[in-house]
Design a protein that fits this description.
By secondary structure, the protein is α+β, with helices and mostly antiparallel strands. The relative contact order is 0.18. It is 22% helix and 39% strand. The protein has 2 domains: 135 residues, Diaminopimelate Epimerase, Chain A, domain 1; 153 residues, Diaminopimelate Epimerase, Chain A, domain 1, CATH 3.10.310. It is built from 6 helices and 18 strands. The N and C termini lie close together (6 Å). The protein has an 18-stranded mixed β-sheet that branches.
């Protein structure tokens, strides 16, 4: 019988029991890919990660990420939450940076003290790829809103920093909160576009501490709506800079997500141009809330 220790982490949370939940398994090479997928389906979080070697390789820790239905090359809150577990439970000492070797490549996570006990964890995502642009009429029908409620400052566009996201702006917070994704047009779009997240935003936060509110839908991964999505928000940070949505040289904003799900989340987004490339960064706080052992 195999027994594997795991931790449950709340990521992009300002306090415990908020943000997005993650299970992190200290696999260390004991599990097959099939067993990892079975465990991810059993945990039924949006993602579950497996640290496949507790010894770093090229200065970073080999990690695999699974949704309940498949393995994916990258995701945001699993990257931050896994780095926290490595720092607190594997190394058991303060660190400045933890690197993860993911399927899409190596991702560094920096621990930046903000006063008090809780650091903000920051990941630098890969250079964004800006893809296809879409018709607002199609997305208005998909989101159950009138087409006049969609922002036309910036296109509806596919962006990827490792996991593709389609970004749609709406006029106000009320419209954002009223969205209901229609299954048939959504499935038709996913059948054509592939496994992509759908991020909808408005230029007003849920709280005074936030600049922007977003909702993210990922039913392709059995996640009808996600409470906090680092990968999609990294794409969004790049999008804000690419299309000069903020009329600023760099992006530095605070984003709220997950309020409709009762999992209030807060993400910090930065983006800047470096040698002609956009460098997006996403940060947030994370808390280990539980641990246990799974027997197979």
């Amino acid at each position: 019988m195999k027994e594997v220790e795991y931790f449950i982490v709340d990521v992009f949370a300002e306090a415990k029991f908020c943000g997005n939940q993650l299970a992190v398994f200290l696999d260390d090479g004991r599990l097959s890919s099939e067993e990892m997928q079975t465990i991810a389906r059993e945990m039924n979080f949006s993602e579950t990660t497996f640290i496949t070697s507790l010894t770093p390789r090229n200065g970073a820790y080999d990690t695999r990420i699974f949704t309940p239905v498949n393995e994916i090359p990258f995701a945001g809150h699993p990257t931050l939450g896994t780095a926290l577990v490595i720092a607190e439970k594997v190394l058991q000492e303060p660190v400045d940076t933890i690197g993860l070797n993911l399927e899409m490549g190596s991702i560094p996570v920096a621990f930046v003290a903000q006063g008090g006990d809780q650091s903000i964890l920051w990941m630098t995502q890969k250079e964004p790829v800006f893809g296809e642009e879409y018709d607002l009429v199609d997305f208005a029908a998909m989101l159950s809103i009138d087409k006049v409620r969609i922002r036309t400052t910036g296109p509806i566009q596919m962006v990827s920093t490792g996991l593709p996201t389609v970004i749609v702006g709406v006029q106000d917070l009320e419209t954002l909160q009223q969205i209901k994704v229609q299954p048939e047009p959504y499935r038709a779009f996913i059948d054509k576009a592939g496994d992509v997240n759908l991020l909808v935003y408005c230029m007003k936060g849920y709280t005074e501490a936030q600049d922007i509110a977003v909702r993210v839908f990922a039913d392709w991964a059995r996640v009808p709506e996600d409470p906090a999505t680092g990968s999609a928000n990294g794409c969004f940070a790049a999008y804000l800079l690419q299309h000069n949505i903020l009329n600023t040289e760099n992006v530095d904003v605070t984003v709220g997500q997950g309020y409709e799900l009762g999992r209030p989340s807060q993400l910090y987004l930065k983006a800047k141009a470096v040698d002609g490339r956009i460098e997006p960064r996403v940060g947030g706080k994370a808390f280990i809330v539980a641990n246990g052992k799974m027997q197979l």
